[in-house]
TrEMBL record:
Record carries keyword Nucleotide-binding: no
NCBIfam families on file: HAD-1A3-hyp, HAD-SF-IA-v3
Gene3D superfamilies assigned: HAD superfamily/HAD-like (3.40.50.1000), Putative phosphatase, domain 2 (1.10.150.240)
Keyword Hydrolase in record: yes
A GO molecular function held by the record: hydrolase activity
Entry protein name: HAD-IA family hydrolase
Key words of the record: Acetylation, Hydrolase
Length: 216
């Protein structure tokens, strides 16, 4: 077993519900193929409109138009503004408790999140969620990297390297949790132990994390 020194978390889809769940509802309501939006986001994954927006390389109006063009070419136009409007998330409180347990084990903690310029975690929460909870989560991170501020995003390998450098840990001594397999792959290739957080039910990931901490 590796000697774990840090646990690194994604934010959306881990501490909150996943935007992918909201995308699925939109797709059903509009008679779109399953995972239509995800397919657009994963096509040309590092250079499409979504990727450029998450790195703050384009502004909101440019993203709105560019995403509309990409989706129109795939058969159904979705404005970028419509997509951003689907980012209404609620907390996964069990994962918040798991973060506290990581801290109690004395491990370093980090968060790598792909976010949007001028749209932080607070703006992505559902209206009835307690914003103070968000502050408590952030206080438990030793370091946080936001794509829109760093100019680099998952799954680009550099963002994982930046986190390891900030925490002064080797990848082999890290656990990384994310809800998207595409984001786990580069971390795993670097030597991190990865945990996929399932959509809708984070408990299997928490159980796996707790088992690793108990063996550490």
């Amino acid at each position: 077993m590796p000697n774990f020194k840090a646990v690194i978390f994604d934010f959306g889809g881990v501490f909150t519900t996943s935007p992918v769940q909201n995308f699925a509802v939109f797709e059903r309501e509009n008679d779109l193929p399953e995972r239509f939006i995800g397919g657009i986001i994963k096509t040309n994954i590092n250079e499409n409109a979504w990727a450029k927006f998450e790195r703050a390389e384009i502004d909101f109006d440019t993203f709105d138009q560019a995403f509309a063009e990409e989706t129109r070419a795939a058969g159904f136009e979705i404005r970028g503004r419509t997509l951003v409007g689907l980012l209404s998330l609620t907390f996964n409180h069990n994962m918040i408790d798991a973060l506290s347990r990581v801290k109690s084990h004395g491990l370093k903690t980090g968060c790598i999140t792909n976010n949007l310029p001028k749209l932080g975690s607070d703006e992505m929460l559902a209206k009835d969620e307690n914003r103070e909870v968000l502050e408590l989560i952030h206080k438990n991170f030793d370091h946080m990297i936001e794509s829109a501020k760093a100019g680099v995003r998952k799954p680009e390998p550099r963002i994982y390297e930046m986190m390891c450098e900030a925490l002064s840990v080797a990848p082999a001594n890290c656990i990384f949790l994310d809800d998207l397999g595409v984001n786990l792959k580069p971390a795993r290739e670097m030597g991190m132990t990865t945990i996929k957080v399932p959509f809708g039910d984070v408990s299997p990931a928490i159980k796996e994390l707790d088992m690793l901490l108990q063996r550490n």
